Amino acid sequence: MENKNNAIEVKDLKIRYRCLRKMSIKRSIKHVFKMQKEVFEAVKGVSFDVPRGEIMGIVGKNGSGKSTMLRAIAGIFSPDVGTIDVGDNTVSLLSIGVGFQKQVTGRENIYLSGMLLGFSEEHINNKIDEIIEFAEIGDFIDRPVKTYSSGMHSKLAFSITAILETDIILIDEVLSVGDAKFKKKSYNKMKELIMNKDRTVIIVSHSSETLEELCNSILWLHEGKVKMLGTPQEVLPVYEEFMS
C-alpha cells in the first residue's frame, strides 16, 4: 500500500462481464444455435483512495458499476485490469443475497462467513451467542438458510457483519433491515460501527439524506467511470440536479 494512511486504494480498476448469447443461424429441424460471446465492461478505469477511518458514499444510477465495484473490493470479483489494495484489513460486504450457503443452517453459516472474513473459530465462538441474539430469528438459527424469509436472511447477514466488526465494511443499499423494531436497532448499530474512527466504510445508497449525514466523501459513478469525487456538499447537489 503506497500510503499507510489509506485503508483502501483502487487504481485503474476495470471489470468486464463475459456474456453468452444465443444467436440463430437458420431455422431447421435440429434447431442449430451459434453461441456468441459478448463482453460488457461494468467498471472502466476507476481510481480512488479511502483514508483509514473515513466513510465514503457512492452514488450513481442503476447499472453504473457501484455493486460490481463493491464486490471486487470484497474479493468476490477479480479485476480484469488494475489493482485493489486493502492492506491487511479484514473486509465484510453487507448486501442482500450475498454470502450464504443455503443448504446448511444459519449457525453453520455464521462460522463459514466468519472464517471467510478471516476470523478464527475461537473468535467466532466468543461472538456467536451475541450474533444469534441480535439476529432475532429464534429456532430458525438451526434450520437450513433455504427455509428463511428474505427478512430473516437479511437479519442474520446484518448481525454477522455488525457483531464481528471487520476493519472495512462495505454496505450495498442495506442500512436497515427487517421489521420496524429491527430497522431502528440495526440502523443505530450501524451508525455506532461506522462512527468508529478506526473503521473504514463504503456505502452505496440512493438516499442523499443518509449519505450527507454519514459520509466524509462522495464518489459519483456514471456508466462505469468516475464522474465526480468530493465532499457531500460538493457532489450531492450536482448529482441530484443531474438525476432530476
From TrEMBL:
This is ABC transporter ATP-binding protein. The lineage of its organism: Bacteria, Bacillati, Bacillota, Clostridia, Lachnospirales. It holds the Pfam family ABC_tran. One of its GO terms (molecular function) is ATP hydrolysis activity. PROSITE patterns: ABC_TRANSPORTER_2. Keywords: ATP-binding, Nucleotide-binding, Transport. Residues 20-242 form the ABC transporter domain. Belongs to the ABC transporter superfamily. It comes from the Bacteria. The keyword Repeat does not apply. The keyword Iron does not apply.
